[in-house]
């Protein structure tokens, strides 16, 4: 009998080669040396609006191409084989397969709001191999695992087994912990390509919560990432907004926090 994953997709119905094949088939035919991309499935978020112009080509991988407007270029994705969450995570990881000829990519979750042109984050990190924000609250995968279980983000047994396996392999404490909603990656770097593949495989075989697996993958591949300056919730480039399914109170609080930051906090961000 096929094992059932925590997101309801049967793992016995496919293997990891199918994941790689999906990413390869979605590769656009034409794009520039620098690409920006995001993933949007269902009604969870609205297509993000970009601030200003950008020299990068911008792609949105989605099952709702009719909702996507320029400068985004919509790429239709059928997420039924792996489920919404896993398909999104796989595409997040496999940037070098989706854009094999690009030099650098910027991925960000679809809930983000742009404060500046994306050219700023590209130019500020032109020499990076792998850059992202440090987690604003946690510094170890075990505290991240507790938070994920408390919020019912994934199956508890799956999360516990994954954390136990990483510790048994020697992952140090604290492991470091990162916010994975924004990623800047150099596709020409072999270590980055290995991290992408290993990270995707960890999600395929374990928890869909990619913030649990990434510290282990970075450690095992001996890649120290660069940290994007600031807090992922409040920084000079982009900030996460509320999700479409959030309560009106949660949406109001998030919008108020962003407004206060734009009026006062952003002036101190250099």
Automatic annotation (TrEMBL):
Domain TOD1/MUCI70 glycosyltransferase-like: 72-220
InterPro entries given in the database record: TOD1_MUCI70, TOD1_MUCI70_glycTrfase_dom
Highest rank taxon of the organism: Bacteria
PANTHER family from the UniProt entry: ALKALINE CERAMIDASE-RELATED
Entry protein name: DUF616 domain-containing protein
Natural source organism: Aurantimonas aggregata
């Amino acid at each position: 009998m096929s094992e059932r994953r925590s997101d309801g997709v049967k793992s016995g119905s496919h293997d990891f080669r199918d994941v790689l094949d999906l990413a390869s088939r979605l590769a656009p035919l034409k794009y520039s040396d620098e690409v920006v991309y995001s993933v949007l499935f269902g009604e969870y978020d609205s297509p993000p609006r970009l601030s200003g112009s950008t020299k990068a080509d911008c792609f949105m991988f989605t099952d709702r191409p009719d909702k996507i407007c320029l400068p985004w270029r919509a790429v239709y994705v059928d997420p039924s084989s792996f489920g919404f969450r896993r398909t999104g995570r796989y595409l997040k990881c496999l940037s070098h397969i989706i854009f094999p000829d690009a030099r650098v990519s910027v991925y960000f979750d679809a809930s983000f709001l742009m404060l500046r042109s994306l050219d700023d984050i590209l130019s500020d990190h032109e020499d990076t191999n792998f850059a992202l924000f440090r987690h604003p609250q946690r510094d170890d995968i075990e505290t991240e695992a507790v938070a994920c279980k408390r919020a019912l983000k994934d199956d508890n047994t799956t999360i516990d087994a994954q954390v136990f396996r990483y510790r048994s392999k020697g992952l140090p404490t604290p492991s470091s912990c990162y916010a994975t909603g924004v990623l800047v990656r150099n596709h020409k770097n072999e270590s980055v390509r290995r991290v992408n593949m290993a990270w995707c495989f960890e999600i395929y075989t374990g928890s869909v919560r990619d913030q649990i697996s990434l510290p282990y993958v970075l450690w095992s591949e001996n890649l120290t990432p660069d940290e994007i300056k600031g807090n992922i919730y409040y920084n000079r480039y982009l900030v996460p907004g509320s999700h479409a399914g959030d309560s009106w109170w949660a949406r109001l609080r998030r919008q108020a926090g962003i407004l206060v930051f734009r009026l006062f906090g952003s002036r101190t961000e250099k």
